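Supplementary Text 2. Reproducibility record for the structural model of the 160-residue chain.

All settings were left at their defaults, and a single model was retained for analysis rather than an ensemble. We include the record here because the model underlies the residue-level annotations in Supplementary Table 4.
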Amino acid sequence: HNVSAIIRTADAVGVHEVHAVWPGSRMRTMASAAAGSNSWVQVKTHRTIGDAVAHLKGQGMQILATHLSDNAVDFREIDYTRPTCILMGQEKTGITQEALALADQDIIIPMIGMVQSLNVSVASALILYEAQRQRQNAGMYLRENSMLPEAEQQRLLFEG
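Retained model, structure tokens:
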């Protein structure tokens, strides 16, 4: 359910690709939570976190881990106009030590109340909307500045 909600939010902010570590043969998402976003957001799966991070670093991405640590910075202080991967942990166990070791930076969502964490799909939404805000302010969503090739833009606009 959470993965589907994250895919839906990714679509809402203009993210075209989501990567997931899924050791099994096929990742299942809930159509109701994704609300058709599976048609617009490509989901790529990796068997291990090491494989996923190596692939994303190979694309020049900064790797951020949502993790409360002494070195963590407020998620709003990050420059999301750079190619960025945000590692989100499992809701019950958080991010693995292996994933933390592979990350360039830990980020946190500051909290004032008594809770110490948010649902993973809610936390993802907050971070993705901050990234969208920064990218929109930088003009990155203007069609002439799109990172998508023109043919892909046309396919997405008229497919459905």
